[in-house]
Amino acid sequence: MTNTQVTLVQLDNYGPWTVTPSPRREVDLQTMQSRLYADLSQAFGMRDGYVFFTRFDNMIAVSNGLDLEDHARVQESIRNRYPVTVSLSIGTGASPADALVEATAALQAQGSAQDADRREALLGQPIDEETRTDDDVQIAHFDVVDATGTYTDELDAYSSFVHIEQGYAALMQHMHDAHDSLSFFVGGDNIIAVCPDLTPADYEEAIEHVRDTAGVDIRVGVGHGVSPHDAGMGAKHALEDAREHETEVEVVPEP
Amino acid sequence: MTNTQVTLVQLDNYGPWTVTPSPRREVDLQTMQSRLYADLSQAFGMRDGYVFFTRFDNMIAVSNGLDLEDHARVQESIRNRYPVTVSLSIGTGASPADALVEATAALQAQGSAQDADRREALLGQPIDEETRTDDDVQIAHFDVVDATGTYTDELDAYSSFVHIEQGYAALMQHMHDAHDSLSFFVGGDNIIAVCPDLTPADYEEAIEHVRDTAGVDIRVGVGHGVSPHDAGMGAKHALEDAREHETEVEVVPEP
Amino acid sequence: MTNTQVTLVQLDNYGPWTVTPSPRREVDLQTMQSRLYADLSQAFGMRDGYVFFTRFDNMIAVSNGLDLEDHARVQESIRNRYPVTVSLSIGTGASPADALVEATAALQAQGSAQDADRREALLGQPIDEETRTDDDVQIAHFDVVDATGTYTDELDAYSSFVHIEQGYAALMQHMHDAHDSLSFFVGGDNIIAVCPDLTPADYEEAIEHVRDTAGVDIRVGVGHGVSPHDAGMGAKHALEDAREHETEVEVVPEP
Amino acid sequence: MTNTQVTLVQLDNYGPWTVTPSPRREVDLQTMQSRLYADLSQAFGMRDGYVFFTRFDNMIAVSNGLDLEDHARVQESIRNRYPVTVSLSIGTGASPADALVEATAALQAQGSAQDADRREALLGQPIDEETRTDDDVQIAHFDVVDATGTYTDELDAYSSFVHIEQGYAALMQHMHDAHDSLSFFVGGDNIIAVCPDLTPADYEEAIEHVRDTAGVDIRVGVGHGVSPHDAGMGAKHALEDAREHETEVEVVPEP
Ligand SMILES: Nc1nc2c(ncn2[C@@H]2O[C@H](COP(=O)(O)OP(=O)(O)OP(=O)(O)O)[C@@H](O)[C@H]2O)c(=O)[nH]1
Ligand SMILES: Nc1nc2c(ncn2[C@@H]2O[C@H](COP(=O)(O)OP(=O)(O)OP(=O)(O)O)[C@@H](O)[C@H]2O)c(=O)[nH]1
Ligand SMILES: Nc1nc2c(ncn2[C@@H]2O[C@H](COP(=O)(O)OP(=O)(O)OP(=O)(O)O)[C@@H](O)[C@H]2O)c(=O)[nH]1
Ligand SMILES: Nc1nc2c(ncn2[C@@H]2O[C@H](COP(=O)(O)OP(=O)(O)OP(=O)(O)O)[C@@H](O)[C@H]2O)c(=O)[nH]1
Ligand SMILES: [Ca+2]
Ligand SMILES: [Ca+2]
Ligand SMILES: [Ca+2]
Ligand SMILES: [Ca+2]
């Protein structure tokens, strides 16, 4: 059974900061946000975790393998190098969606995202090192079939983007509502989903849903592992298999 | 009348690179992509331009104020510091959507996004310095009303994200189809749209559309200027006015 | 005659910040400092300027081509993205050393580097756009002859470093005392000097001085230009000539 | 007894790359080098290691706590995000200087720093996890007494730099020749030295040497630990004690 550890990363009181004393240059906000995300991605990644940029002011990490000390170090490093600070809240469970509900609730209980007095909260309890298993994380790497030939080389860049975005919107909502999964756009035509124990049939149905709702053809590779990196790398290799075999769903190791 | 200059930034042959010789670590791709975006944001921003991350492998810039030499320098700087290269294609026109159609078509004519022989294309013609005016760029900065109280502090982080994302999806498609505008999520609950000459009534209608379709309440500040920065900073101040007056649309200077 | 514009970049009240409330992690300080430097290098570089890291808390830029507005934008961008702020002070003159004396004195007159009330000073007057000429900047790019064969591949890494460092120390002091020049280590075995109108004989004598004092063989390429980039790129090409012709000094355009 | 693990980080075939096909913009090289360094500092730092920029094309890390897999990951991450690759060579021993001799020799045995066929070497053997002790690393954090009042606020910025640089040159050579230590400038007026088991008397003598040779007054805090971070943070606290007590040498824990 999966046991996903998620971490909610929330910038402290960020909205007010962006307009104090007057609105800040958008290009600087964009640079600051994307670099902060890049740093989190490396910091969690050095410990085999994944971070998704989500809204940039609220980012979601899959953090199996990072203990409280690791989290505290990331928090300190941001404080030392950025004009903003972050709160971190950890949740765990068989369902990624539920784990995030738990993490969010704990943080909300400490105060609002725009509470000037709530800074650098560090909440929740990571999974014990001894209880970690190879089944803890399941990751699905979705990819649009021939995005280059169908969209990028055919439509104007914004229309391509709208199509992929619609496929993404359909997928993320379906995977959340039907499958307790958290799906994230990771650039290009790729979506990575953190899932509970799903079956190949679940994935086939999701792919069909996206085709029916948004008219976008996708395929998926699925991997398992003790960490997001292990599961995610498995998923990438499975996706390569799916490309080669022209199949819709590939799971490694085979279930 | 507006005269928007857009630049399509396309990573050259990026898809194959991500899986050669075998799939690359996702955290490294995420870091590389977001830093490349951050650098473009600063580089264009130093000349008062805006860049949006869009798909990360295809980014869209509003580049009024950057000439061909500026573009060439950005291209060279990326080549000197990243393992990937970028092609740049410029389009111009009263309609931002049409300008991007032009820019995309020119690049597609040079070869596929995944053509190994098409590298560092630099296409299109910037607006002549002498013909630039204060009306060239119109930018609308949309923002969800009380996102913190309605979503962030109330729902779990993913559900908040889904709501904002749905508002965004509805807005971006409507603004594109009805108003030839290019709208981009810029983090948090903010969307920035590059528009032709739209009226306050157009914006009111768009806001109503989002409320009806996605159930999300938004407001907007609109600015004009010779550059994206000037227009965008006007829009931010107008948005502050809208917050203060609790109005839905504010335009500066008043039309 | 040269007319060098230098900008002193000083972190405001940085010493106290590094130990408040308690000493900060060294790796974070190192990261923050080197990224701040990298950003300044890009920001000045987009306008054809050069920045040298020097002490990191006091950096020296050659800023011909950047006006006050450009400086203000750099200052604002740092403020928006870093936990520290910078003061900027501009000096100009035929002698780079004197220009820096002027810039430093102006900043010192505003208060100490560790005065908590002196923040984001912006001082001095750039060279008028109309008076700029192709002779304004002279840059000399010094390079150790066969550093790889003599040091890197032969000695242990620290001893190699000590030798190059000693050559550098001898050169920087000599060029300052005898030739009013500002010389900076730029990595590897390279030193870039910003000079007044020096003759090939001056450079030969400097090279001899370094050979006699530190036992290190160097050669130099010298360029002129309206901007640091133009002069510096000339110097690099001249250095390539020197490598090819196995000469000690090459100047472009030939004097 | 100390047991220092050092890692030599060497950019592969970097010299030729900087001038192929023609000399690259200096500001881009500066940015690339300093960001590469910043990333290494974070990557090693997440595991409690230290990296010093040294020559930028040859960097020296104190890497107690990082095993071969950690090194391989750093190497891979650089390859995925930069246009250059790095070789890594590990050496260990009671003497930091000797450990680096070992690391350098191993790398040189694989080929020249400018050998196009030698890429991404990963050499040497880290210290076994079980044999690590609290005495493994000794770090001395040297600092100029009242650099602000004596130099920064008094002299022009270049003369201040020359004075600090001379103190540094005297210290680094003395600590290497007399004490088998590796000393590095870390910005401002600070030097960090990685040392074998030295006594307070050794440090007093070094400080005297710098005062006599270069006329620069310095003090030092010394720390021990299982990792560079632990030892270095001890040294920082000891330095704060030295500042408070106006002593020249403070060691924690007291010997
Ligand atoms: N984040 C991420 N993005 C990727 C990865 N692989 C590809 N991409 C993105 O996906 C885009 C499209 O590449 P591909 O999926 O290879 O191209 P395609 O035309 O859809 O071809 P097929 O997927 O093989 O049918 C690229 O430009 C990248 O932005 C990956 O592993 N991670
Ligand atoms: N890119 C960008 N994001 C912003 C800006 N201002 C705010 N945000 C984002 O918007 C989020 C929400 O902040 P606000 O919009 O101030 O908060 P709110 O609760 O919706 O309050 P009101 O908008 O005042 O009703 C922040 O966390 C930021 O991520 C901006 O100027 N640019
Ligand atoms: N900042 C900077 N560093 C450079 C440049 N060119 C080379 N280097 C550095 O110099 C180091 C040594 O390279 P080279 O100077 O080409 O090698 P060499 O063995 O001394 O050979 P020759 O100089 O040709 O005699 C490289 O590792 C780089 O760190 C440059 O243009 N700028
Ligand atoms: N790398 C690094 N640099 C530091 C640290 N602390 C201070 N500095 C640098 O040292 C410079 C001078 O600061 P201080 O040493 O506090 O100032 P000072 O005037 O010498 O005062 P005292 O040292 O207290 O006599 C700062 O601008 C920083 O660049 C540190 O912990 N690490
Ligand atoms: Ca695809
Ligand atoms: Ca809002
Ligand atoms: Ca050389
Ligand atoms: Ca000091």
Automatic annotation (TrEMBL), chains A, B, C, D:
EC top class named in words: hydrolase
Q: Which Pfam families match?
A: GCH_III
A single MF term (Gene Ontology): GTP cyclohydrolase IIa activity
Which EC number(s) are documented for this chain?
3.5.4.29
Q: Which InterPro entries match?
A: GTP_CycHdrlase_3, Nucleotide_cyclase, Rev_trsase/Diguanyl_cyclase
The UniProt catalytic activity note for this protein reads: GTP + 3 H2O = 2-amino-5-formylamino-6-(5-phospho-D-ribosylamino)pyrimidin-4(3H)-one + 2 phosphate + 2 H(+)
Please provide the record's keywords in A-Z order.
GTP-binding, Hydrolase, Nucleotide-binding
Q: Which HAMAP family match?
A: GTP_cyclohydro_3
Q: Which PANTHER family match?
A: GTP CYCLOHYDROLASE III
User: Which family is this sequence assigned to?
Assistant: Belongs to the archaeal-type GTP cyclohydrolase family.
Function noted in UniProt: Catalyzes the formation of 2-amino-5-formylamino-6-ribofuranosylamino-4(3H)-pyrimidinone ribonucleotide monophosphate and inorganic phosphate from GTP. Also has an independent pyrophosphate phosphohydrolase activity.
* Annotated NCBIfam families: PRK02240.1
Protein known as: GTP cyclohydrolase III
Give the organism the record lists.
Answer: Halobacterium hubeiense
Q: What is the lineage of its organism?
A: Archaea, Methanobacteriati, Methanobacteriota, Stenosarchaea group, Halobacteria
